Amino acid sequence: MMGEYFFLFSSIFLILLILVSLIRVVGGPTVGDRILGGNVVGTKTTVLLLMIGVLYEDLGMFVDIAIAYALLNFIATLGATKFFLRRGDVREIVDEAITRQEDIVADAEASKGGQS
Amino acid sequence: MTIIASIFILGGLFFFAIGVLGILRFPDFYSRLHAAGKSDSLAAVLVIFGVALYNLQELSFGNLLVSLKIMLIAVFIYVASPTATHALTKTALIIGIEPWEKGNKRQ
């Protein structure tokens, strides 16, 4: 009665939602927005895997994949938050690296000037 | 049974759409987190429950086990999604992402 088309169009709608929420992952102003976007995409993908399982009429296999994906998504989010909790914002890390490199270059030039 | 399942799935898709709208339109990180965290866990549980009901059309022991596993995913998401949101909020507060106030520019 419901037909295959219901799950097909639900899956297409979910894929469109994933594409739209990728905007936040690519262009989010802070690092938290990117992690949040990744988490949202992961949750939608877990549901999408179940729908693909219904479409392929092999739900028993896709359920295991969906469980693994949900676990992996949770661990990835927690890992990313822990990393940025310890290291601070990405921009600070990049700034620090740039200043360190400039110091190294300046030191090298100073030592070269001293030799000659 | 299929009609009830389709109602659950359509409700879940509606809440997914609302969550994505909130992520795109809200002015700062914390309000976006509020939109994503709540609507996503509710929508995922609704859709997963609908798929589990749809799977129980032909009642057999194997289908029952698969539906039980699907509900296990729902329980896991219901526990894990708020935990991830909490960790994200705490990290954002500590590394100094500033909350939006009325009159400020949207971030």
What does this molecule look like?
The complex is a heterodimer of chains A (116) and B (107). Chain A is an all-alpha fold and 116 residues long. Chain A has one domain. Chain A contains 4 helices and no strands. In chain A, α1 packs antiparallel against α2 and α2 runs antiparallel to α3. By secondary structure, chain B is mostly helical. Chain B has one domain. Chain B has 3 helices and no strands. The model of chain B has no long low-confidence stretch (mean pLDDT 88). Classes of the chains: A mainly alpha (116), B mainly alpha (107). Chains A and B meet through α1, α2 and α3 of A and α1, α2 and α3 of B.
What percentage of the residues of chain A does DSSP assign to strands (E)?
under 5%
Shape descriptor of chain B reads elongated
Largest interface: A-B, 45 and 49 residues
* Low-pLDDT sequence parts of chain A: none
Catalogue the unreliable spans of chain B.
Answer: none
